[in-house]
Amino acid sequence: MKITSYEECPAQQFDNETIKGVTGRVVIGKADNASNFCMRVFTVAPGGFTPRHAHAWEHEIFVHSGKGKVYQNGEWREVTSGTVLFIPGNEEHQFMNGGGEDFVFVCLIPSGVNEL
Fold this sequence. Notes:
Elements: E1 12-14, E2 20-28, E3 37-49, E4 59-65, E5 67-72, E6 75-80, E7 84-87, E8 94-97, E9 103-110
């Protein structure tokens, strides 16, 4: 069993032309012998965004804190603390910070794909 704060897990910073102001953490994954899923926590700084992309696997998302926007079917939808999202495989999506504080969300993906 693993019990820890997500903030104690190693962080990886992302900041380039397609992703800005994003910190990603694998909080449960291969290193924990998780054989079915990987749980990640992303923090998007004010003004930050993830890349717009699609892939074969689904995502399950829980917005932990802050205000954000998610790109869905050609438009942006606002999300806030407590929002849950299901993103089917092959659906184009992107997240951006929609406020003045950190936007933090939890993301589940299947095992076998790149964890970060």
